UniProtKB/TrEMBL annotation:
<dbReference type="GO" id="GO:0009401">
    <property type="term" value="P:phosphoenolpyruvate-dependent sugar phosphotransferase system"/>
</dbReference>
<feature type="transmembrane region" description="Helical">
    <location>
        <begin position="121"/>
        <end position="143"/>
    </location>
</feature>
<feature type="transmembrane region" description="Helical">
    <location>
        <begin position="68"/>
        <end position="90"/>
    </location>
</feature>
<dbReference type="Pfam" id="PF03608">
    <property type="entry name" value="EII-GUT"/>
</dbReference>
<keyword id="KW-0472">Membrane</keyword>
<keyword id="KW-0812">Transmembrane</keyword>
<feature type="transmembrane region" description="Helical">
    <location>
        <begin position="22"/>
        <end position="47"/>
    </location>
</feature>
<dbReference type="GO" id="GO:0016020">
    <property type="term" value="C:membrane"/>
</dbReference>
<keyword id="KW-1133">Transmembrane helix</keyword>
<protein>
    <submittedName>
        <fullName>Glucitol/sorbitol permease IIC component</fullName>
    </submittedName>
</protein>
<dbReference type="InterPro" id="IPR004699">
    <property type="entry name" value="PTS_IID_sorb"/>
</dbReference>
Length: 181
């Protein structure tokens, strides 16, 4: 009977700990994410949706802006998963590469900009807790993670360009490299 009682108590402690973690997020992280979302939506409203769309079209013209700058700006302004919508301004050939770069950035930016991908914030928080326990700066890690992520977004996007070309050739499909409205 003692084993059953200990198991039941341990089982309930698991949920109590989960509840405590949830409440700490509700008082710390959720208000921060909400304020960042409000700030980004306000900025988009001030700039105008047309200017944001024009920025995306300009960014689509070269690989650096297409796989480093555009994913950063769209994730920062729109968050995940809405950031993928900026790919609509890219020619069909570059869309798979943009999505690859965009999804990577949504993961690597969580430490600095938690509003981008709040659904996966628990992953960052687990890593950051370990760093904090060691007495190291969480922001140093977050910035390094984001900068490495930007470089890897570019590499991932560019490699996906080559993969897209290979698959298109293999399948006998021609994808447009120009943007047509």
């Amino acid at each position: 009977m003692n084993y059953i009682t200990e198991f039941a108590e341990s089982f309930m402690k698991l949920f109590q700990l989960g509840g405590e973690t949830f409440i700490s997020w509700m008082t710390n992280i959720v208000p921060l994410v909400l304020m960042l979302l409000i700030a980004m939506n306000t900025l988009i409203a001030f700039l105008g949706e047309e200017k944001v769309n024009s920025l995306a079209k300009i960014s689509a013209k070269n690989p650096v802006s297409r796989y480093m700058i555009l994913p950063f700006i769209s994730a920062f302004m729109l968050g995940n998963p809405m950031a993928i919508s900026m790919g609509r301004f890219l020619p069909e050939y570059y869309k798979p590469s943009f999505v690859a770069a965009q999804m990577q950035f949504c993961h690597t930016s969580n430490g600095v900009f938690p509003h981008i991908n709040p659904g996966e914030l628990f992953v960052w928080m687990g890593i950051a807790t370990g760093i904090q326990t060691l007495g190291l700066s969480q922001m140093d890690l977050a910035i390094r993670y984001m900068l490495v992520g930007l470089v890897m977004n570019f590499v991932g996007g560019w490699v996906t360009d080559f993969t897209t070309a290979y698959v298109a050739k293999q399948q006998g499909v021609t994808l447009s490299k120009t943007f047509d409205l």
